[in-house]
């Protein structure tokens, strides 16, 4: 039988919380390439994160895939984007400064506005979320070995 004082128990719990926190942050860092891959797949498939096709153009025939005229928006969303990882959160976003002149219409395309239909590209489908969940679980398990 192991006996501990309340202070010793609290110290052990604090140490475990710290291990888990570090493991989650490390896992989120490892998820960043998965997130980029998932957003890229949305552009490649012209679909939202749930796999629903983006609304078609009003006028067909301008010769480029939806949202990939110059490639700047996709590049900003998958490479030149804002990425912030802290102990329990991974945030991504399109860098308004990407490509020199910025990507001022990124939010309009992602969320839709007025006459511009929503063509959501930021976000992950279940496949990519599962990959990140596996990475996080792996990192937490490592913390207890």
What does this protein look like?
It is a single chain. This protein has 145 residues and is mainly alpha-helical. It has one domain. Helices cover 49% and strands 7% of the residues. The protein has 4 helices and 2 strands, in the order ααββαα. It has a two-stranded antiparallel ribbon with strand order 1-2. A hairpin with a 2-residue loop joins β1 and β2. α1 runs antiparallel to α4. The protein is elongated and about 75 Å long. The two termini are 22 Å apart. The mean pLDDT is 84.
Instruction: Report the mean per-residue pLDDT as an integer.
Output: 84
Helical fraction equals 40-55%
Strand order of the largest sheet: 1-2
Q: How many domains, in number, for the residues?
A: 1
The 3D shape can be described as: elongated
Which radius of gyration do the C-alpha atoms yield? 21 Å
Compute the number of strand runs.
Answer: 2
Largest sheet: 2 strands, antiparallel
The quaternary structure here is single chain
N-to-C SSE string, H for helix and E for strand? HHEEHH
- Strand portion: 5-15%
Termini distance? 22 Å
Strand and helix layout:
Layout: H1 6-45, H2 72-78, E1 82-86, E2 89-93, H3 106-111, H4 126-143
Antiparallel strand pairs: 1-2
In short, what is this structure?
With 145 residues, the protein is mostly helical.
Task: From the structure above, extract its key features.
single chain; 145 residues; mainly alpha; 2 strands; 49% helix
